[in-house]
C-alpha cells in the first residue's frame, strides 16, 4: 500500500492506520496497527480464602434480599411495592406519594455520601463485594465452572473443535444463564407489579406490554453484562472507575503489593531452606497466580490501577502461596500507599484513616441520615395539595358574595380508613359554601372541589387583588375531646375582582 493511499484510508475513517515505513529496498515495508486494542478473553481461576468467603456471604445476602423481598407480605399487601399505575409507593408500614419525592432525594444523597466516605476510607470495596455487576458476574462464573470446569478446562474446551460434548456443555451453560437472567428480570418487575399477580400471569404468558419489555430488557442486561461483558463493564462502561481517583489519596486503603519485600521476584524450589534474600530474591516466586485469579486480568504487582475492583482474590491466592512456601502472609494485602512505604502498623493505618475529609464525610452523612429518619418518623398520616380552578378565578353569587373555586387532593398515607374535615381561615368573612367531610379508605387519594365565599362587606374592606388565606384539614380522632386530631394548613390565595 502506498503512503498516499494509506493517508486516504486514515482520512476516510478506516479502522486501520499505517505506521511509519522503513524502506530497505525498492518496495516499502508498511506496518499496520489497529486503532482498537484486541480484547483477549479472561479466564479467572477459582480461589479459596477468607476474602472469597466474605464476597460469597455478600452475594448470598444481597440476592436473598433482592429475590425474597417482593414475596414478603405486610398488612395483607406486598411489603415493598412501587405501584406506578396508582402512584403509590409501599415501603413496609409507610405509604408514599409522588409528593414525597423529597424522601427519595434524601436516600440518594445518603447513598452518594456513603459512596464518597467508603471510597475515601477503603477504596472500591463496593465494586469488589456488593456491586450488582460483581455479584452477578460471580454467580455466572460459578455456573460456568460447575458446567465447564476451572480455568484450564475452560480454556481447553474453547480451543477444542466443536463436538457433541462441547455443544452440550455450552448449551447447558447458556440455558442456565438465560433462566437465571429471566428470573432476575421477573423479580425486578415484581417490585413494580405485584409479584404474586405477576407469577400467576407467567404461567399463561399474560404479561402486559411494559411488563414484557422490562422483564426481557433486564434479563438481557443481566445476561450480557454478567455472562459476556464482565470486566469490560468495570473497565470501560462504569464511570466510577474513572472518577474514583478524585476520592483516593495515599491514606486510602487499597490492595497493594509490597514491592520492597517481594522484589526481585523469581522462582525457587518449594522446599528450599535457604532464605530468599541469600539467593538475591524477594518473597515473590513469580507464579503469576495473582494475575490468573484477577477478574479484570491485571497484574497487581504493577501498582495501583483503576481496573482493580478491590475483590482481594489476589490476596487470597498469594497468602495460599506464602503458606506453601513457609513465608509470612501479606505480600499482597489491604494497605495504604503510605503504609507500604512507611511500614505502618495496623493502628497507624487506622489513625491516618481518620483524616479531615473522612470526618467531614462522616459528619454530613450522619446529619443527613438523622434528618431523614426524623422526617419519616414525624411525617403526617395524610397530605393535601391545593389547586385553584383556573377556569374561574372569582365570581359573584347570591347576595353579592364573591366565590372562588379550588380543588383539593387529599391523600391518605395510612393503612386504615380515615375521615377529614375541611375548613378555611386567614381572612375575615371567609366561609365554605357548604360543609365538607371526606372519608377515604386505606392509602386512598381523592380530588374534592371546594367553593370558598367572602361576604360583600369583607370584600370591600379587603380590596381587589389576591389575598393570602389557608385551608385547614383536620383528621378525625375519636380519642380527643373535640373528636378531631392532627391538622394540616395549606396556603392559597383568595381573589377579589375589581
Number of helices: 18
Q: Uncertain segments of ≥5 residues (pLDDT<50)? A: 1-29
Number of strands: 18
Shape, per Cα inertia axes: elongated
* N- and C-termini, Cα separation: 87 Å
Quick recap:
The protein is an alpha+beta fold and 498 residues long. Helix content is 43%, strand content 20%.
Topology overview:
Layout: H1 3-11, E1 16-18, E2 32-34, H2 50-68, E3 73-74, E4 77-78, E5 80-83, E6 88-91, E7 94-96, H3 101-122, H4 125-129, H5 132-148, H6 151-159, H7 164-189, H8 195-204, H9 209-229, H10 231-237, H11 240-243, E8 254-257, H12 259-262, H13 289-292, H14 313-324, E9 332-335, H15 337-342, H16 346-353, H17 356-377, E10 382-388, E11 395-396, E12 402-412, E13 418-425, E14 430-432, E15 436-440, E16 445-454, H18 456-462, E17 465-476, E18 484-496
Antiparallel strand pairs: 1-2, 3-4, 5-6, 6-7, 8-9, 10-12, 11-12, 12-16, 13-15, 13-17, 14-16, 17-18
Helix pairs in contact: 2-5, 3-17, 5-7, 5-9, 7-9
Characterization of this structure:
By secondary structure, the protein is an alpha+beta fold. Helix content is 43%, strand content 20%. The protein folds into three domains: 3-34, no CATH class; 42-379, no CATH class; 382-496, Immunoglobulins (Immunoglobulin-like, Sandwich), CATH 2.60.40.10. It has helices at 3-11, 50-68, 101-122, 125-129, 132-148, 151-159, 164-189, 195-204, 209-229, 231-237, 240-243, 259-262, 289-292, 313-324, 337-342, 346-353, 356-377, 456-462; strands at residues 16-18, 32-34, 73-74, 77-78, 80-83, 88-91, 94-96, 254-257, 332-335, 382-388, 395-396, 402-412, 418-425, 430-432, 436-440, 445-454, 465-476, 484-496. Strands 10, 11, 12, 14 and 16 form a five-stranded antiparallel sheet that branches. α2 (50-68) packs across α5 (132-148) and α7 (164-189) crosses α9 (209-229). The protein is elongated. The termini are far apart.
Amino acid at each position: 500500500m502506498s503512503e498516499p493511499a494509506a493517508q486516504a484510508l486514515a482520512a476516510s475513517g478506516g479502522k486501520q492506520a499505517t505506521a511509519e515505513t522503513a524502506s530497505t529496498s525498492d518496495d516499502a515495508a508498511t506496518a499496520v496497527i489497529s486503532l482498537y486494542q484486541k480484547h483477549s478473553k479472561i479466564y479467572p481461576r477459582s480461589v479459596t480464602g477468607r476474602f472469597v468467603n466474605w464476597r460469597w456471604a455478600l452475594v448470598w445476602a444481597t440476592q436473598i434480599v433482592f429475590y425474597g423481598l417482593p414475596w414478603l407480605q405486610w398488612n395483607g399487601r406486598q411489603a415493598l411495592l412501587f405501584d406506578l399505575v396508582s402512584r403509590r409507593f409501599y415501603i413496609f408500614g409507610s405509604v408514599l406519594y409522588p409528593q414525597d419525592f423529597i424522601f427519595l432525594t434524601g436516600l440518594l444523597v445518603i447513598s452518594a455520601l456513603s459512596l464518597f466516605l467508603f471510597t475515601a476510607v477503603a477504596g472500591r470495596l463496593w465494586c469488589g463485594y456488593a456491586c450488582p455487576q460483581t455479584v452477578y458476574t460471580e454467580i455466572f462464573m460459578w455456573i460456568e465452572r460447575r458446567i465447564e470446569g476451572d480455568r484450564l478446562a475452560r480454556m481447553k474446551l474453547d480451543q477444542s473443535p466443536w463436538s457433541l460434548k462441547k455443544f452440550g456443555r455450552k448449551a447447558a451453560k447458556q440455558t442456565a444463564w438465560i433462566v437465571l437472567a429471566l428470573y432476575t428480570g421477573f423479580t425486578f418487575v415484581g417490585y413494580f407489579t405485584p409479584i404474586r399477580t405477576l407469577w400467576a400471569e407467567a404461567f399463561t404468558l399474560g404479561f402486559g406490554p411494559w411488563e414484557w419489555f422490562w422483564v426481557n430488557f433486564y434479563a438481557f442486561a443481566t445476561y450480557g453484562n454478567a455472562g459476556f461483558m464482565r470486566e469490560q463493564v468495570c473497565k470501560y462502561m462504569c464511570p466510577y472507575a474513572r472518577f474514583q481517583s478524585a476520592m483516593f489519596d495515599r491514606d486510602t486503603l487499597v490492595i497493594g503489593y509490597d514491592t520492597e519485600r517481594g522484589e526481585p521476584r523469581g522462582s525457587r524450589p518449594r522446599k528450599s531452606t535457604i532464605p530468599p534474600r541469600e539467593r538475591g530474591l524477594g518473597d515473590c516466586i513469580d507464579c503469576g497466580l495473582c494475575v490468573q485469579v484477577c477478574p479484570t486480568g491485571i497484574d497487581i504487582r504493577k501498582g495501583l490501577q483503576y481496573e482493580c475492583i478491590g475483590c482481594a482474590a489476589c490476596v487470597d491466592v498469594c497468602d495460599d502461596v506464602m503458606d506453601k512456601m513457609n513465608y509470612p502472609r501479606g505480600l499482597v494485602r489491604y494497605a495504604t500507599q503510605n503504609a507500604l512505604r512507611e511500614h505502618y502498623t495496623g493502628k497507624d493505618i487506622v489513625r491516618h484513616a481518620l483524616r479531615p475529609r473522612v470526618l467531614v464525610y462522616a459528619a454530613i452523612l450522619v446529619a443527613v441520615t438523622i434528618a431523614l429518619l426524623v422526617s419519616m418518623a414525624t411525617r403526617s398520616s395524610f397530605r393535601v395539595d391545593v389547586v385553584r380552578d383556573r377556569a374561574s378565578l372569582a365570581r359573584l353569587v347570591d347576595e353579592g358574595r364573591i366565590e372562588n373555586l379550588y380543588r383539593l387532593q387529599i391523600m391518605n398515607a395510612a393503612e386504615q380508613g380515615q375521615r377529614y374535615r375541611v375548613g378555611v381561615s386567614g381572612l375575615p368573612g371567609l366561609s365554605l359554601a357548604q360543609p365538607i367531610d371526606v372519608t377515604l379508605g386505606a392509602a386512598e387519594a381523592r380530588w374534592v372541589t371546594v367553593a370558598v365565599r367572602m361576604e360583600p362587606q369583607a370584600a370591600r374592606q379587603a380590596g381587589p387583588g389576591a389575598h393570602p388565606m389557608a385551608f385547614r384539614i383536620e383528621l378525625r380522632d375519636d380519642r380527643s375531646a373535640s373528636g378531631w386530631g392532627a391538622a394540616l394548613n395549606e396556603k392559597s390565595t383568595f381573589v377579589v375582582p375589581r
